[in-house]
Amino acid sequence: MRAFFKLLFRNRLAAAGAVVMALVVLLALVTPLLPLMDPDITNTADRFMRPFSEGHLFGTDHLGRDLLSRLMWGTRLSLAVGFAAAIIAAIIGSAIGIIAGYFAGRTDNIIMRFVDMLMAFPYILLALAIVAALGPGLMNALIAVAAVNIPFFARNIRGITVGIAHQEFVDAAKLAGLGHTKIILSEVLPNVVPVIVIAMSTTIGWMILETAGLSFLGLGSQPPQADLGSMLGEARSALITSPHTSIVPGFMILVIVMAINLLGDGVRDALDPRLKSGALSRPTATTQIASDRVAAASANDNAILSINNLQTQFHIKDRIYKAVGGVDLDVKPGECLGIIGESGSGKSVTALSVMGLVASPPGIITGGSVIYEGEDLIGAPYEKLRSYRGNRIAYIFQDPLATLHPLYKVGDQLAEAIRCHHHVSKTAARAKAVDLLKSVRIPNPEDRAESYPHELSGGMRQRIGIAMALANDPDIIIADEPTTALDVTVQAQILALLNDLRREHGLAIIFITHDFGVVAQLCDRVAVMYAGRIVETGETDTILADPAHPYTKRLIACVPELGGGRRQLAAIPGLPPVVDKLPDGCAFAERCEKCRTECTVGDIPLRISGSRAVRCLYPETELARETA
Amino acid sequence: MTIALRLQNLSKSFAVGKRLLGAPKGVVRAVNPVTLDVKKGETLGIVGESGCGKSTFARLLVGLLEPTTGSIEINGQPLDNADPAAFGKKIQYVFQDPVSSLNPRKTIRQIMEAPLKHLHHMDKTARAKRISEIFATVSLREEFLDRYPHEFSGGQAQRIGIARALAAEAEILILDEPVSALDVSVQAQVLNLLAALKEKLGLTYLFISHDLAVVEAVSDRIAVLYFGSVVEIGNAEDVFRAPRHPYTKLLADSAPVVGRPLTAPEGKETELPDPLNPPTGCAFRARCPHAIKTCATETPQLTGDETQRAACFNPLF
User: pLDDT by residue (tens digit) across B155-171?
Assistant: First the structure.
């Protein structure tokens, strides 16, 4: 709650709205206590007195009634009616929406078609019809305004409920023996309330306006009772001669509706989880780079890409998450380098940092360099990075459905990828796209180019993803868990395809995965990451056969292998450290059986010995001492 | 040996393209009739790829879906109405995504209390006592009870999910991909916990997963699902080592194994058949290198001895 108010008041307009609204509500509440004249006493002798006349601060209206008093009482009434209508509409509308969304099927269909019918009428016409049927009067106007707004709530809340009703926790509640009513009240409703509040805060202004509109037409409050709408309506005939009688209530309506809308927008922004997660904060085109970055020099000359002491952090509020804490990697032409690690180990962030694709804010590269063809890509201008992205260095992501545009044909998307970097005609690009589809072994490439992403199976989509990565004959492909979302039979095909392509095109592949089986089959070398750093690297076969770091050894032991039969699996107790609170010394020390006191102090360096390196003081196998 | 769970001709079809009035446009058979016995104290592994109907199957078993045909018997008592509350005391479900199976707006205590309150009608003190017992069993600290689900890591949340399933005191647990959202080092912790619980409480498991190695490591018997049908069922140590059905062999050959060279195990068409327009005969025949004429005309039934049965006219042995 506190966080909500803090967030709300950070928005200055919303804060201003809140202050104005609080003032108006306060005045409306204390109106009966103020020494005001009776708003309904007529005195035709004093009619149309100007503002600031004696005894009448805002002047008088066509019957000589005190405008200040009428304004205060009118505001009070208008606010009460507006709030009441909003609450009634929210309760009834949300109830309808939740029931329709929760039960779905025929119930949903019937309710929502009825709601659609209500929505098909222009709202003012519907309100007029309701008032006409019930007779004029403020109460009936309230009912009309509430009724007119019910469909809005019903539709909004239904949409949210449909999403929640399919969540697993609702199934879990069913299995825990809860009935439908209890599930709706205790499982669904608490998750919907924020949306109801958002919808209310953004519509309450409208409701006050609509009530004023009905009163203006003489269908709301009846004389002599004052509300803002009827005051305007009565003043209409004297608009030219005595404009103050219109301006006073009109200005009040303007102030109230403006204040409520500003506040409502603020409430929505503060409550909406999408905004909290930063979805609306627009990331910069490349990852930010700390001004005090120390660019490390490349150590390896024959590498096509070399990452040196790369450090990427996420700065969220006052916390610093060291996602990548100094990674050194290099990959030679035609080589496949595996990066293996668990979630949160920094393997994906390392890969995204190469092309400056880490979202900023909150991501920031604080150190190191990425050398490609003798140039440092970190800190390279955006135009240069853009000309390399997908052209010289391409990515394959985990979920091709999320990376392909759903509204364009895959052939067009491939052609676009080509035309982005090469000045070729549309037909030439198109022909190349079909060739690409052929090269990733898609049957009937001409027809498939005409398909939309949703028409393809997961394996086919990932082939398109690979085709897109190949579109500009890159030197390096960075594949971030490209087979994790796929079935085993499809995974085997995709891996075989990547392996063939690598040999045909002489590609360097950086392959990120959490699966040792995949690494073993595809990668020449592997780097094992833990808590943002490389703990071990070397030839795949040696590492798998003879791991040097205790983490690698135990991680391999955790993985069940097919053909092993029924058995107790080895586990690593505990959890990886959170990267905003990394311990001193070895990050794995806490979970390590061999941990000694030296392991928890200072920085443990990556000891290099020939092609292998390990970040451990007491490795499982002593690496050969080499004097290079 | 007593039978904990007996399924007879259990199947589920979904109507597709429903209209407000009149018959739906088509019917998808998500699960074809399954007849199956699970012995008390046994772990039956169920493997299959996406779209094979394994989740629908799991939801049928706990009463979240009403079966189109067939019956479910638990400890000899039939349960044929789809009422999760009636099923809840006998058979429980552990969800795939540990975090989304916990209501984000409830504390762990409220989540744990629900089955005790609604299935067992316990009073407050009895509930508190039972919750601390269960938490001790799954090695969770009691201070977790007043926290909200988002404060937990995947492994911890899955332990809470298991604790909730245990609270119902059901003897059969359906584990629907319980470790596929977890990292390998944590996955083993959860699998070992499940094994220990089974030993201690005499539970019966149905372990559903797409990970062949995991299923093999935890199961007594394994059923392989393809396109809504059980195509092979047998002892865990035999099914992947010596498969009888060509699909099982394809699965076993596709799993990445350290030390096995990379080859695409399949050159033929790899797409699943269209569920709206299923093929006649065996659903796997289009992908099958051993297909014979009969495969196109007749639907194969499970045949073979009790230890390993396959639904194939031309089995591998």
Answer: 889 999 999 999 988 89
